[in-house]
């Protein structure tokens, strides 16, 4: 409130003008109103007859930013991933950080590797401060190529010849 993270107290005599503080702010939320205790129809403009407390009420913001990062397996031998694409999205604070895996030729999305805010999990919420990061990983597909001699021979062999490797590897 007014740049202060602590409670603000006003003291005055019954009926004296009550100057309310500026509306408070909070990352990822919109100030809704002051909730009085004890209940009252509205925030008074003068000091009431007895002590009262007014608590800020918040509405989650619907435009909180978060990122979805897509990582492709980089090495043919596997195990390392490079950032291929980033989606900058927004959603409601505290709601599910929604994402859609991409379809990359030669790669398959690995849902079991999904990270949200550094934890391997398939769902998580949008942080109020806009720091949510979803990381999706895509593994190179294992590809099998078969050569059929069709009545001929390959390297002197009349049988089919099969080669297996990861997408993008030399054949």
Question: Any chance you could write out the topology, listing elements then pairs?
Answer:
Layout: E1 29-37, E2 53-60, E3 64-73, E4 81-91, E5 107-109, E6 115-116, E7 119-120, E8 133-140, E9 142-147, E10 161-166
Parallel strand pairs: 3-8
Antiparallel strand pairs: 1-2, 3-4, 5-8, 6-7, 6-8, 9-10
Q: Can you walk me through this structure?
A:
The protein is mainly beta and 171 residues long. Helix content is 0%, strand content 38%. It is built from no helices and ten strands. The strands form three sheets. Strands 3, 4, 5, 6, 7 and 8 form a six-stranded mixed beta sheet that branches. The protein has a two-stranded antiparallel ribbon with strand order 1-2. A two-stranded antiparallel ribbon has the order 9-10. Strand 6 (115-116) and strand 7 form a beta hairpin. The radius of gyration is 30 Å and the shape is rod-shaped. The mean pLDDT is 91.
Observed structural traits:
171 residues; 6-stranded mixed beta sheet; two-stranded antiparallel ribbon; 10 strands
